[in-house]
Specification:
This protein is an all-alpha fold. The chain has helices at about 25-35, 40-55, 60-70, 75-90, 95-105, 110-120, 125-140, 145-155, 160-175, 175-190, 195-210, 210-225, 230-240, 245-260, 265-275, 280-290, 295-310, 320-330, 335-350, 355-365, 370-385. It starts with about 20 loop residues before the first helix and ends in a 9-residue tail after the last helix. Mean pLDDT is about 90; it is low at about 1-20.
Length: about 400
């Protein structure tokens, strides 16, 4: 199966209690909260600012305005608001938790771990902080630490669906499929309408190669909620595995209709377009993903792959490919073999075959980390580079 992508932790709850407000301020705060939930970040910021004019010491309004600033990508404004919260209350667990979540989105995992650890120190029984810190450890590929945090969260709350789901995803990422399935089964047992449980089970079956069972789970999830983006994304991934790229594109497009800012869906659709040979559309989706977050390594590597290997000469550009691939590798500490594979192809396209051989050899030192369908192709690419030839994608 295609390499499993870690989907991150569950979304943080942004609904906070409102108290101590004048009526007008309470109304602005409530409307700001609604705007934030709808991802209308500009309106949310305006409304929280209005609320703060009436109550300049509201931690809740500063906190949620910080979230809105962070989602917009205005980190300085977000950090300033988090500092205002902590000035009002140096022991605000929520401020550390939300600030950690912002660092997660920009893949600053060490900073995120520091924030979540502060939250845990202040409140050792805060299961959400353990879940989020576990997600940050996953981002660093420190899976045993992640599992320890998720298990602690489950001890604190044995029926915590986010904790069970996160632990299941980590087992899945490690390909401990029986353990993953046990966690997802437990979720469905606790709450039969919790869609992520079915999605997780479907991913396990897909990883086992049983796509019929996988589709049954994804379809069951969509029977519960036809507009569930997670289920459409997972089903799209399964269609890619089945090499039915048209149906995959339809599912990813449905995700983007639900949430036009979904970076993963843009990347996935781009990859499906690329497999169909629709390279211009693929480039468009990868570029849109980078407009939403210029530090997304999957989008960077995807762009680099097309620029390095595309059969259309006018789309190839070795130097741009190297630039994008190197950035993807740096963001993942040169630990992601598929990104190294892309970097090697980029060097080969640029005629730097000695570097291509070195990088491809480094990638092949971890053969188990390659998707099964790609390992032999990667070995063939190494032979091409050794013969002084670049790799060209068929089609």
């Amino acid at each position: 199966m295609t390499a499993i992508r870690w989907a991150g932790g569950m979304g943080l709850v942004v609904c906070l209690a409102v108290f101590g407000w004048a009526d007008e301020g309470a109304d602005a705060f409530a409307k700001g909260n609604e705007a934030l939930a709808k991802q209308d970040f500009d309106r949310a910021i305006t409304l929280f600012t209005q609320a703060l004019k009436l109550n300049p010491k509201s931690q809740s309004a500063y906190l949620l305005r910080a979230v809105a600033h962070g989602k917009k990508g205005d980190r300085p404004a977000a950090l300033a608001d988090y500092e205002r919260v902590l000035k009002l209350d140096p022991k605000s667990v929520l401020a550390f938790t939300y600030r950690g979540a912002m660092y997660m989105e920009t893949r600053e995992f060490d900073k995120a771990i520091g924030e979540f650890s502060q939250a845990i120190e202040l409140d050792p029984k805060n299961s959400v902080a353990y879940i989020n810190r576990g997600g940050a450890y996953n981002g660093k590929h420190e899976y045993e630490k992640a599992l320890a945090d998720f298990s602690t969260a489950i001890k604190l709350d044995p029926k915590s669906l986010p904790a069970l789901y996160s632990r299941g995803r980590t087992h899945l990422y490690q390909r401990h499929l029986d353990k993953a399935l046990a966690d997802f089964n437990k979720i469905v047992e606790i709450e039969p309408k919790f869609i992520s449980g079915y999605v997780g089970r479907g991913d396990v079956y897909a990883e086992r190669g049983d796509l019929d069972k996988a589709f049954a789970e994804f379809n069951r999830a969509l029977e519960i909620d036809p507009n569930n983006a997670e289920a459409h994304q997972a089903r799209g991934d399964a269609w890619v595995e089945k090499e039915d790229y048209g149906k995959a594109i339809a599912d990813f497009s449905r995700v983007l209709k639900i949430n036009p800012r979904d970076i993963r869906a843009h990347v996935s659709r781009a990859e499906a377009y690329s497999e169909k040979g629709e390279y211009e559309k693929a480039l468009g989706d990868f570029e849109q993903a980078l407009k939403l977050f210029d530090g997304n390594p999957d989008a960077l590597s995807g762009l680099a792959w097309i620029r390095a290997t595309c059969p259309k000469e006018d789309l190839r550009d070795g130097k741009k490919a190297i630039e994008h691939a190197e950035k993807a590798c740096k963001l993942t500490d040169y630990k992601e073999v598929t990104f190294l594979d892309t970097l090697a192809a980029a060097y080969a396209e640029d005629g730097q075959f000695e570097k291509a051989v070195k990088i491809q050899t480094q990638a092949l030192k971890s053969p188990d980390d390659f998707p099964k369908k790609e390992l032999e192709k990667a070995r063939q690419r190494l032979k091409l580079y050794m013969d002084g030839k670049p790799y060209r994608k068929e089609g």
